[in-house]
Amino acid sequence: MPTLTLSPRAKSIALFVSIAVNVLLVSAIAAQALSAPGFKSRDRSAESRVERLAKKLPGPDADKLRKAFAARAGDLPAARAELAAARDAFRQALKAEPFDPARLEKSLAAMDASRTKIKQIMRSAVVAAAAEMTAEGRGHLAERGKRR
Known about the structure:
Elements: H1 8-34, H2 46-55, H3 59-72, H4 76-95, H5 101-132, H6 135-144
Helix pairs in contact: 2-3, 3-5, 4-5
């Protein structure tokens, strides 16, 4: 049986084609993986976070969480507006000439306080709901809090 020998030029072409096909294949796999639902940016609003938590709870407990959040949701727009104003103040402090470190520190403290206020609103909803939940519902909340 005769053996096939390739010239150096044919070997170079075959190597180039092989590399090109592999690059295309890896690119297609990466594009598919990155466009999968798990890689999409998640809605990070308070409402969507509560809804994601509620979906993991038994029906009546989920309703209690939604109700507790709804009772406090009216406080969120003002807290969010405070956070937006604090972020604006932070940006302005960074741009200011002459630069004033105390002004920047004050804006950072305001951002921290605004974030804390939002967290407190969310925590109070969870605490109020947990006080009315079944042991099973609280167990689901506890499991949800574990790091992945």
